[in-house]
Write a structure and sequence with these properties.
There is one protein chain. The protein is of the alpha+beta class. The protein contains one helix and eight strands. Strand 6 and strand 7 (154-161) form a beta hairpin. 25% of the residues are buried.
Length: 168
């Protein structure tokens, strides 16, 4: 009887260990901590380089802003602006990228894209999209401005990304 109890106990331990390992593998991508800075808010993640003044010799960009918001029902909104010191030939955003954490690295949810306007001082971006729940999300982009055209054009870009946030 003792032998049978011991065998049953060993079988239970092996089964529970195997099940725990399997359950851990299934949820590992969602439970690992992403690289980056988490947002303190459940529904909003601000850019890490917002409102930085870029003024200096040869500067075109004055200030920038980037935000990621959860609107509900797994809808995310990307909001950004690039403000220049004066009206410029081209202003906007390059390599806009909505990304999610897959457990090992950040991967693009959408193909990165540019959003540029001509002959203005400030360009605003508002983009809404539905995403899959169970992941961390963030946005990265370059704020971009160009004065003039051709070989002698004065170009400036600065990187910005949001903190990351969880979407159920």
């Amino acid at each position: 009887m003792k032998k049978m109890s011991t065998c049953i106990m060993i079988a239970l331990i092996i089964f529970s260990t195997s099940f725990s390992a399997f359950a851990g593998e299934v949820n590992a991508k969602n439970l690992s901590k992403p690289i980056g800075i988490p947002s303190k808010s459940e529904h909003h993640a601000e850019g890490l380089h917002n409102e930085e003044t870029m003024r200096g010799k040869g500067s075109i960009i004055d200030s920038t802003n980037l935000e990621l918001s959860l609107l509900g029902n797994r809808n995310l909104a990307i909001e950004a602006w690039t403000r220049c010191i004066e009206k410029t030939s081209i202003v906007g955003f390059k390599k806009i990228s909505l990304q999610r954490w897959d457990g090992d690295k950040w991967v693009n949810v959408l193909k990165p894209w540019d959003d540029l306007e001509e002959n203005i001082q400030k360009h605003d971006l508002f983009y809404k999209t539905k995403v899959e729940g169970g992941y961390y999300y963030k946005v990265s982009l370059y704020h971009y401005a160009q004065q003039g055209t051709g070989v002698f054009a004065n170009k400036q870009k600065t990187f910005n990304e949001t903190k990351y946030m969880w979407v159920d």
